[in-house]
Amino acid sequence: MDARSLRIAGLTLASAGAAMSAEAKQFLALGYGGREAAQNWGGTYFGAHGGVGSQKSDLGEGDRDLTAGAQAGYNFQYGSSVLGIEAEASWIDNTRVKVPGGALNERMRTALKAKAGMTFNSVRVYGLAGITMTKFDEGAGVAGPDKWQQGYMLGAGTEKAFDGGLSAKLEYNRVVTEDVATSDDGLASKSDLRGYVFKAGLNYRF
To answer: 102-120 and 64-78: which strand pairing?
Structure first.
């Protein structure tokens, strides 16, 4: 290969390399979601929530009680994909959960949740999973546990961003607390308790 051919090959390779570098930079800027998001969801946030809890997934059935609390978290944004972690604490207005021989009352719950979802400009949708700790009080006819009980949470939600760092969310949680020990007239038993929470909330990002 002569010197002229080598120069032409070198220029071709250099041009191809520059083009590939530009494409790579554009891909990284867009992120995994494949498009650039106009709304920035990244960073620290805190907020408050309120809702309704029940032992039944259908709110038209069973007892329904109010819940309220606060949350704080951090989001990582990659293009239109958002990953986050959130800590939450909720007061529960004696949601009744049936156990053998009677019922217990849910009083408080904390949760540590991981979230993952996609953004569509100022709206995002996400799924979540996490670990919960629930405090039960004695209810009707049974003695309950005297310690907080560990469980897990699954759910999904959607959130709408507004100017000034504010956003509003709607969220659904399914909570499972396994092997909750109770006693009815000296007869001990363990139950897997399930609860469903529908909540709305506000967050402030900074």
So the answer is: unpaired
